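Weekly sync, protein design subgroup
Attendees: M.S., D.O., the rotation student, P.L. (late)

Item 1: inverse folding check
M.S. brought a backbone from last month's batch and wanted to see whether the design step gives back something sensible before we order anything. D.O. pointed out we never logged the input encoding, so this time it goes straight into the notes. Structure tokens as presented (309 positions):
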């Protein structure tokens, strides 16, 4: 569900032509609807394998936000495609000044940059993304320029609980109008292999360019300990009204004790907003890794349509 500013941005600030009467999914002062559709053509080339291309529905979601009382909210995120499943469902109580909240249910864990792309190394490898909402409780506190969240969850990515251990997620950020700096920590005792993750992330608006950065350290412990290092860097530039250019670089070192096992991925993406609540995206991604892992050398091209309300 987009905030009021998110709706304004998608209807007028980002677009080439403003819609005269954009669709308003606000049913009443207390009940709002929202939705997303993402689909298009995906083509890939993997060394030693047959080239592939297919039309895909990446995501079709409906959101419901109900203000039951002044300080009590219910939220539901239901996905209908590619699979029919509930992504999040939670109840949240907020203080009257909106500085503190308590959330209970299934929700996205507070960790790092919340990118839309679940395939990004920092979201795919960490296992914290839009496909892995977990059941638990979360406490949040926003005061002045500080924003903090602490969550305790099952550690099963929404699946049934199978032991007494839990997952702990902590996120802290200092926010100013043109930049933010933050850090996250996550420890999952519930997994077969105990995992500890730590990251530092930052965003800044400088030279009319949006810069995003995150670096993660992941430690998996069983009989031995392995350490993984991941980084993400992206810039976004509005070339002209309604046209955005996105460049990103990703790095993944699966085991810092092993030399020359790293993989990288470079992406260039063009985004066009022809009118309110419509986005066209086209992009190319170049993956490079060791020859023994063909998937690490995957090249992708895609053209997508994104519509929302």
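Designed sequence read out in the meeting:
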């Amino acid at each position: 569900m987009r905030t009021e500013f998110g709706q304004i941005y998608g209807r007028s600030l980002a677009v080439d032509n403003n819609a005269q009467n954009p669709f308003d999914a606000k049913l009443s002062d207390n009940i709002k609807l929202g939705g997303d559709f993402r689909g298009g053509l995906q083509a890939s080339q993997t060394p030693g394998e047959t080239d592939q291309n297919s039309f895909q529905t990446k995501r079709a979601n409906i959101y419901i936000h109900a203000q039951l009382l002044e300080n009590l909210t219910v939220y539901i995120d239901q996905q209908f495609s590619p699979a029919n499943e509930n992504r999040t469902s939670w109840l949240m109580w907020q203080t009257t000044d909106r500085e503190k909240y308590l959330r209970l249910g299934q929700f996205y864990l507070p960790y790092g940059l919340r990118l839309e792309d679940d395939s990004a190394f920092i979201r795919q490898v960490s296992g914290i993304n839009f496909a892995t909402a977990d059941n638990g409780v979360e406490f949040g506190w926003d005061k002045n320029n500080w924003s903090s969240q602490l969550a305790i969850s099952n550690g099963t990515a929404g699946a049934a609980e199978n032991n007494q251990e839990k997952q702990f997620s902590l996120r802290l950020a200092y926010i100013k109008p043109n930049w933010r700096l933050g850090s996250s920590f996550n420890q999952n005792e519930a997994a077969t292999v105990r995992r500890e993750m730590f990251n530092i992330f930052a965003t800044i608006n400088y030279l009319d360019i949006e810069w995003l950065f995150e670096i993660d350290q992941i430690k998996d412990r069983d009989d031995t300990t392995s350490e993984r290092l991941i980084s993400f860097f992206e810039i976004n530039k509005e070339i002209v009204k309604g046209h955005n250019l996105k460049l990103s670089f990703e790095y993944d070192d699966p085991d810092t004790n092993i030399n020359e096992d790293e993989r990288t991925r470079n992406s260039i993406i063009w985004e066009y907003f022809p009118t309110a609540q419509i986005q066209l995206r086209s992009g190319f991604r170049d993956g490079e890794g060791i020859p023994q892992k063909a998937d690490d050398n995957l090249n992708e091209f895609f053209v997508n349509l994104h519509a929302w309300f």
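Discussion: The mean pLDDT is 93. The CA atoms of residues 251 and 264 lie 5 Å apart.
Action: P.L. to compare against the previous round before Friday.
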